[in-house]
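Page 42, continued from yesterday. The earlier attempt failed because a stray header line got pasted into the input along with the sequence. Redoing it now with the clean sequence only.
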Amino acid sequence: MRTVFFDIDTQIDFLFPTGALYVPGAETIVANIARLNRHASASGIPLVSTMDAHSENDPEFVWYRPHCVVGTVGQKKPESTLVPNQIILPKQHFDCFTAPELPGILERLQADRYVVYGVVTEICVRYAALGLLKTGKPVALVEDAVRHLFPDRRDQFLAEFTAAGGTFTRMELETR
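This time it went through. Structure tokens are written below.
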């Protein structure tokens, strides 16, 4: 079975208290994200890492303060999460499926299963996980490698995710 890991928007602006759109507690999952990414690289598991890539006047900034502006420190991924052969997928919208490169990447990788983690659970992780479920392949969300902003919206997404056939896993189960 060919598994593909999806690391969603694990960028400095989201993960650390000094970030422009810090997700409270996100720094606590960085070690798990780094371990998942290193495991993928060492085991030959394809790793797709999405990255918010906004312009200075991005329309999204009507809803959220400016973050992950292309070329800024905040747009970068923490060094510990970067690994060889990582596929970096820049995106300008919440939904990674709006990135024109993604269909070709999915076709090339021919996954039988997807493992998803990152931030923000009820926003960008939601779009990725539900979009991947629409491929008809199993999708597992790594519950100790995601972080949310709004508990009620997170809970709503998790119910939607499981109703659509998604499952949960933990970092240690995916890095054996």
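Notes: The beta strands are 3-8, 47-52, 87-91, 113-119, 139-147, 167-169.
Reminder to self: strip header lines before submitting.
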